[in-house]
Amino acid sequence: MVFTSHPKYTPLMLAQCIDHTKLTFTAAEDVEQAIDTLCQEAITHQFYAVCVRPEHIKRAKQALGSHNTKVATVIGFPEKKRLLNDEQMAPTVGGFPTEFKLQEVKTAITNGVDELDLVLNVAAFKQELEESETLPSASKTLQELQAIQQASQGCPVKVIIETDLLSDAEVIEATKACAQAGVFMVKTSTGMLMEGIGATPKVVSLIRNTLNTYAPDVQIKASGGIKTTEQALVLLEKGANRLGTSSGGLIVAGLK
User: Fold this and answer.
1) How far, rounded to the nearest angstrom, does the alpha carbon of residue 181 sit from its chain's CA centroid?
2) Per-residue pLDDT for 1 more than 60?
3) What pLDDT, in 10s, does the model give residues 172-195?
4) Is the Cα torsion angle 223, 89, 91, 85 positive or negative in sign?
5) How many CB atoms are closer than 10 A to CB 168?
6) Where are the alpha helices (DSSP H) in the chain?
7) What domains, with CATH codes, occur in the chain?
8) What are the pLDDT digits (tens) for 114-134?
9) 95 near 141, Cβ under 8 Å?
């Protein structure tokens, strides 16, 4: 669908909501060339940021040069994609030790990263909720979020809560934990669950309504399965502030 106009967003305004993302590669891809291409596309379309794995931060910074596009990276991110059903049965998403995540944060900051997209330890979070209807203030989940927030040295932290693995009640509790930790954004998905839905208007609305109650200034990054202009605009209308997608060029091109 091509939108001939929109009352709120111009193509540039829409582009400035996008984190242009490259976190997976095929066996045949030249990784460095892929990162260079990602960054050139970000410059061309004036996207807000590129999002890459920690080992590609330096390459992205080099490829962007003096352009004002920011570089985001992922912390505690899955190495490879997994089936949704497998993850629902035994979540592994975000299951790295806190010490590992803290080291990734330290290295990323040293390498000049501008934003951090941290993956929630989903299994630990769900286990803690099984023991208590709400997360206690001394929960390991909240302690990890606070530790990452402190180690970030002011670098904005977005927390990926992987909504495909959470019930509505768990989405609310995860969002409340993010609010309590004082993070910059709550992010919906890693995009690494095969057969996962990713960002939906319903879940973005649920996160936004929860934040309006507990921390209105905390923002939302919708990510996972966003491929069209219509999807992007609906998610923004529902309360998303940023969009994580590898289809940014097509999304902006759909708004003429």
Assistant:
1) 17
2) no
3) 999 999 999 999 999 999 999 999
4) negative
5) 11
6) 11-15, 31-45, 57-64, 84-89, 98-110, 122-131, 140-151, 168-181, 201-214, 229-237, 248-253
7) 11-253 (3.20.20.70)
8) 999 999 999 999 999 988 877
9) no
Catalytic site includes residue 86: no
Whether pLDDT at 3 is above 70 = no
Whether 187 is a known active-site residue: answer yes
Query: Which one from 70, 158, 221, 238 is the annotated catalytic residue?
Result: 221
Burial (0-12, 13-18, 19+ Cβ within 10 Å), 156: middle
- Identified catalytic residue from 19, 114, 117, 164: 117
∠ CA 206-113-123, nearest 5°, is 45
Tokens of 30: 């030249």
Contacts of 3 (CB under 8 A, 6+ apart): 229, 230, 233, 254, 255, 256
106 is catalytic: no
Task: Name the phi and psi angles at 154, rounded to 5.
Answer: 90, -5
Q: What local confidence, expressed as pLDDT, does residue 128 receive?
A: 94
